Please model this.
Amino acid sequence: MGSVEKKMPRINERLATSGLRLTPQREHVYDVLLAERDHPTAEQVFLRAKKDMPDISMATVYNCLDALVTSGLVKQVNLDRGATRFCPNMHEHCHFYCESCGGVYDIGLTRARPEVPMPRGFKATHLELSIRGLCPDCAARKK
Amino acid sequence: MGSVEKKMPRINERLATSGLRLTPQREHVYDVLLAERDHPTAEQVFLRAKKDMPDISMATVYNCLDALVTSGLVKQVNLDRGATRFCPNMHEHCHFYCESCGGVYDIGLTRARPEVPMPRGFKATHLELSIRGLCPDCAARKK
DNA sequence: TTGAGATTTAGAATTATTCCAAGTATTGAC
DNA sequence: GTCAATACTTGGAATAATTCTAAATCTCAA
Model:
């Protein structure tokens, strides 16, 4: 972390524009997401968050994650039937889902985003790209 | 439907190559998906399937959907925190998710698929594109 | 016809998420 | 600063979605 000076005003302001407050719990949940960018589930966030904030509750973790998502600081990632995952990387990127281990990885998008012709009436706000396959570890193991 | 001649051998063969059998339940669940292409959840499939096959059970619907997915006849669609949806359209297309009503629509892809440079070691099997926004009805209503 | 293996079924169990009510904290008006 | 209004956190209950289990049934091939 260590970027409190830069992170703090941003997160505060982002929450504020959605009518939400910056609380110790929300900041901590955000820090947990920033610390290990492996797209954890709410449950994993809860376990990690408890290390430094033992009294935080599951309900609060869900609340914080929702607050971060609605204020545009975090992305919600749904790639399979399992639990929703969370991603604090708001740069344009896509997700790679390993069909063997279930891991999720960020993949940078260098090229221009794909153009999709919208049928009449549809208003697109944004576009998501995901890729399924084998991550390096699983690919090596299957060889 | 009425395309039994064309549908039957295909579904049978597809299931067979995954070591699965064509059963009345599996065929019926597939027909339900083909009949109304609104990306129903397992629950909705269950309710529709019961109309013509009153004794079918929820567990069987899940089993059938899994069988159809693993044999490549149906796609599983996960766009939000809610229940998984199912799509029998196996042509290249992407999904539009309406953030207001939760509806899911197929959008044809006319252009070439986007190119994404894979980091070393990742083996991509396929690529999924989804678009979020407002469907025509909801867009009109919000005007 | 028989036996092995696949499938269906109802219901229990599990997992993921949301809801609720009570207590606590924060903010703005005064 | 004080007070009321509002937002937030919490534990636990409730709900929703999915998976598991064990027994009955079916199908295929020998």
Q: What stands out?
A: The CA atoms of residues 121 and 127 of chain A lie 16 Å apart. The two ends of chain A are 38 Å apart (CA to CA). The interface with chain B takes residues 76, 78-81, 84, 94, 96, 99, 105, 107, 109-111, 113-136, 139-140 of chain A (CB under 8 Å).
